[in-house]
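## Example record

The block below lists the input lines for one assembly entry, exactly as stored, with component labels intact.
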Amino acid sequence: MKHAPHPAIAAGAHPFPHSHLLGIGALQPWEMLFLLDEAEQWVDLNRGRSKHDNRLAGLTQVNAFFENSTRTLLSFEIAGKRLGADVVNLGVQGSSVKKGETLLDTALTLNAMHPDLIVIRHGSSGAVQLIAEKVDCPVLNAGDGRHEHPTQALLDALTIRRRKGRLEGLTVAICGDILHSRVARSNFQLLGSLGAKVRVVAPPTLLPANVEQLGVDVFTDMDKGLAGVDVVMMLRLQTERMDGAYVPSTREYFRFFGLTEARLAHAAPDVLVMHPGPMNRGVEIDGSIANDIVRSAVTEQVEMGVAVRMACLDVLTRTRREVAGWPHP
Amino acid sequence: MRPLAITGARVIDPASGRDGVATLLVRDRVIAGIGSNAPPSDAEIIDGSGLVLAPGLIDTGVFRADPAACHAGGITRVVLMPDQRPPLDDPALVAFAQAMGKPGVWVHPLVAATRDLAGQELAEIGLGQAAGAVGVATGRGAIASSAVMHRLLSYSRAFGLAVVTHAEDPALTAGAVATEGDYATRLGLAAAPAFAESLAVARDIRLAEATGARLHIRQVTTAEGIALVRDARARGVAVTAGVTPAHWLLNETAVAGFRSFARLSPPLRSDDDRRAVEAGIADGTITIIASGHDPRTQEDKRLPFADAKPGMAGAETLLALALSLVRSGALTLAQALATMTAAPAALFGLPGGTLSVGSPADLMLFDEAAPWRIDGDRFTGAGNTPFDGLPVAGRVRMTIKGGELVWRG
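Predicted structure tokens for the full assembly:
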């Protein structure tokens, strides 16, 4: 799928004048589209027999995950390796963080090893930005607290665009634990900027204050929230939040906010169902919907994740690889 | 010791209402006279022309007695919070804390309201008073149990001690680092509603009213909280309220970019609340301005916003920031000085805070108009100020404690 460059880029705007990718909030719409367009080539490569490109050869990519993650870490590792980078993973287990080293000391230690790119996940909002201010290489946010998870929003948008052919004019319902979700916050901004209409559907206890100020329509009734939507994006609800803390029980949650066949009937006939994973079948989503390859894009999201991350790794390292037309931002 | 005469300065004593050029004479560490008489021939003369001479400031509710920072800020007395390590919940610790500022600054400790500041069992308040405590404080947090708070206020009343509280509902604010609103939502910060303050203010005012105790709410930062204090004062409840410059000069947008120096307790509020604080100071609902001085190390502050410790270093900037209220017309110069001298002296029954003859010669001379730029890197101690880079006016030129010049700037 080839896209004409965005008019802003055609008119001479730098396609991506950023040293880091810390959040969707810092990006212009054409910069988001640029990353999506760049990702398309990697979808094709990843579906081929030889999944290798050498453009990051000789560069060191550090994946510093201060919060447990399996799929995102794996996705970044595969993305880096397919581009030829030397990929090193630093997990929270066995790291000096456990020994009381401060986050900034850890960042300076990493920096002293001359990485060319650092991918960070951290449990505190703003932590990735803090590290980015202290290191000399591009930093990619793989999720910070409840703040942002930009590559997740990009892969969601790519998935939707490939399935629906567009983002503009679509209605997307994001359902579940909005309060604690960085995925939701990144998606509000990305989908909103690219012309989609975003709804949030959740019990009031899982909605952040003034969320409507972020340009979304708020629903606390799932059937009404799903009426006519083109895309349903379910969020994971962590089980420790369901024992009376934010919602009374798993079964009550599923009864009123779980995605079932009956509920999905309120959406558009060609509705696309998404989930950033890992899914809690029977808690937020009925297993049969998750398995439906026509309506569910869950595995495709994982596939797009690798492509989007390859695009981000490539774009963020272009300046240091001295790619023509990529001066220091 | 030679007598000291300060001549030519505009002498402002909020306690007596004096405001005019005069000569002030210090003899044997106390104020010996104010007037137009020529100074005695053996006196050491300080020319205060063009400067304002006022009582040394009293900083209510600091977390550390920090003589160097106090001197630079014209502060000669601090009322020390019990949140020390260990907490001041024992008379011996109170006595020790009282002595720790010597000789630089007078330290007036507040005794912890409850053992270990845990909010459960009453600490030895009476013995604390005997050891030098000038009041009781709940510490950085509020006491969650209304029953404990009720008993604390009734018990403290018998000793005539003011009870200093932190007004935030502990359950609503548990884990929160920001005020609920679209700003906190955008940044993904755990937030508590602003009414967490008014709930606590309402409860504590009601309990003060029921017990007749003197209640001082160290910081009131929301429109609702201020309205409650205003009403209570109008009906004669013995409640006073304080605030720090952060809550009338900054709003929630100061946390942009996750600036941990703007992580404060209570958190910064909406601009409506900020303006309500300014109005509350102007109409006399808030009578005490304090620095909230809470110097923090880099280890405590150079962290992701939510993991950073709350608090700001404020002693050195207290006067200049308070003077912004004079320039905005909210207060006269004498009123502004009263919030940092006469008002806290009256609340805690302190010597000082006045220029009356016979009072300790704790003084400061400042240039009301001298412009400077706040620079945390140039502070005498920790530089964790949310006001870094702010241009201000008003600079302390001399700080005199007990008749001795302790600082000149």
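The longest helix of chain A spans residues 29-47. The beta strands of chain A are 60-65, 86-91, 117-122, 139-144, 171-175, 197-201, 217-219, 231-234, 272-274.
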